[in-house]
Amino acid sequence: MSNCARGDMSGSPHIALFAQAGMGHLMPHLRLATILLGRHCRVTLITLSPTLTTAEAAAISSFLSTYPEINHLELHLLPDDNGPDPAITDPRFSQFARIIRSTHLIRPMLSSASPPLSAVISELYTASQIAPILIDLHIPHYILYTSSIKTLPLIALLPKLLSDPSRFNPSCSDVNFPGLPPLPVKSIPSPLFSPGHVFTQTLATASLTFQRAKAILMNTFEEFEKSTLTALNHDRIIEDLPPLLPIGPLTPYRKSRELTPKGDYKTWLESQPVDSVVYVCFGSKAPMGVAQMQELGKGLVGSGFRFLWAFKTKISLDDEYNDEDEETKSEDVRELLGDSVWHENGRRGMVMSSWVDQDEVLASSSIGGFVSHCGWNSVTEAMWAGVPVLAWPHSGDQRLNAQVVEESGLGVWMKEWGMGSENGLVNGEEIGEMIGEFMRDENLRETARKIGEEARKAVDAGGSSHETITKFLKSL
Ligand code: UDP
Ligand code: UDP
């Protein structure tokens, strides 16, 4: 806890963070909450009840027990009268429908806050529900954008793009934005080309709320994505966009010991030589088919490097996160990944089919590289740790984030690699060779280390992100 948070708080701003479902969306809110707490603010965290997964519920309760000074409110979501829409397979969208049904509960929650709120920070997806209420209550609204700056013009201009299918369709090679380099069509999330898709509709509606927000808080630092930031903030290539405030990387928070995931990987990792281990993790959900996982396993063994592989096999991270019968689980993992990987388990490598503490893993001096799907949290965590990334993106914003990884020098991007489905299998031999090359690249490691140093400078007192937060708080 900061001294300021313990002391007299009478003049402090009171900021509410409205967290979004999905671990990758919740994390940046929790991080920002602790940063604001350390900067003299009263903080209220609003979460959704029920959470999408028990893993999120566990993360929230662990967080609140570590930071009891944070005030917690729950938005109790009303059930969807018609039941879940069978056409909607992603549970987040069903939950989104419940948020829309429960919008009337948000207003009393915000208006009765004591002391009155100085600002509300929400993610883009929920912004369309919250923005009108905040305008009415005269509370400034800030959006916390949880992806790279590179993805922002695409989302901000989505309604315009959708209205011109001759220039925005999957058979174009590039999509052009005035004042920015063209975006390769392959990097654009494919649902965005279907105007009727629930994801596209949600985003297109939400993007209209950008212009009503005071500013957009970005989980990055000024120097990391300088050219896109300059185009948007200085050259104003999208006229009605509010200023982007890079306040990141949002740094990991202190976790209570008894609630962090258990795992023998920690002892193993600590005993490995410096920079010797490649860490492999594709986020909180399962992006990879079984056959591709087996090829990856062969590749890791064949690379000759030590490895820590935290894999997921379920679309819901609950099944990965919760404790299971360890023996049954071991057998499943062995069968899934094959004997060669299993043989190395606990020796030259470690496979984890449960949740690992990624912040802690990346902070370990043994980790020399990170094979990542490039979810934006993972990218910011790699930049914070100064660990180079071998980008193997899958869907959503990940390809654009991978482009940022490559352009910034934080890593290399395997543009032609798919996840074993639409683009075919990447074979183990190729993966092994690439991982070997990546892990031997000392220049890349040095560049990543420097990015880590810059990231630390940015968030330390006097650094660009630190100063941006100071200005933001002064403006409240
Ligand atoms: N994460 C973790 N342990 C795991 C898998 C993921 O701590 O075993 C964390 C990771 O550090 C990151 C978040 O979960 O903060 C995943 O977010 P990201 O944007 O990288 O990917 P997503 O899961 O949203 O695709
Ligand atoms: N999304 C969401 N909840 C909503 C509406 C939209 O999570 O209520 C978005 C989500 O942020 C993501 C997209 O749906 O951009 C699905 O893509 P992906 O599977 O890549 O999710 P992510 O890894 O970013 O959470």
UniProtKB/TrEMBL annotation:
Q: Per UniProt, which keywords does this protein have?
A: Glycosyltransferase, Transferase
Q: Which domain of life is it from?
A: Eukaryota
- Carries keyword Glycosyltransferase? yes
InterPro entries listed in its UniProt record:
UDP-glycosyltransf_plant (IPR050481), UDP_glucos_trans (IPR002213), UDP_glycos_trans_CS (IPR035595)
Please name one Pfam family that this protein belongs to: UDPGT
> What EC designation does it have?
2.4.1.-
Its top-level enzyme class, in one word, is transferase
GO molecular function of the protein, one example? UDP-glucosyltransferase activity
State the family named in the UniProt similarity comment for this chain.
Belongs to the UDP-glycosyltransferase family.
Q: What's the protein name?
A: Glycosyltransferase
To which species is this protein native? Answer: Punica granatum
Lineage, uppermost ranks:
Eukaryota, Viridiplantae, Streptophyta, Embryophyta, Tracheophyta
